[in-house]
Amino acid sequence: MNGPLVVLVGPMGVGKSTVGQLLAERLGVAYRDTDDDIVAEAGRSIAEIFVDEGEETFRAIEKRAVRRALADHDGVLALGGGSILDADTRALLAGQRVVYLAMDVEEAVKRTGLNTARPLLAVNPRKQWRELMDARRHLYEGVATAVVTTDGRTPEEVSQVALDALELKEA
Question: What is the pTM of this model?
Answer without folding.
Answer: 0.88
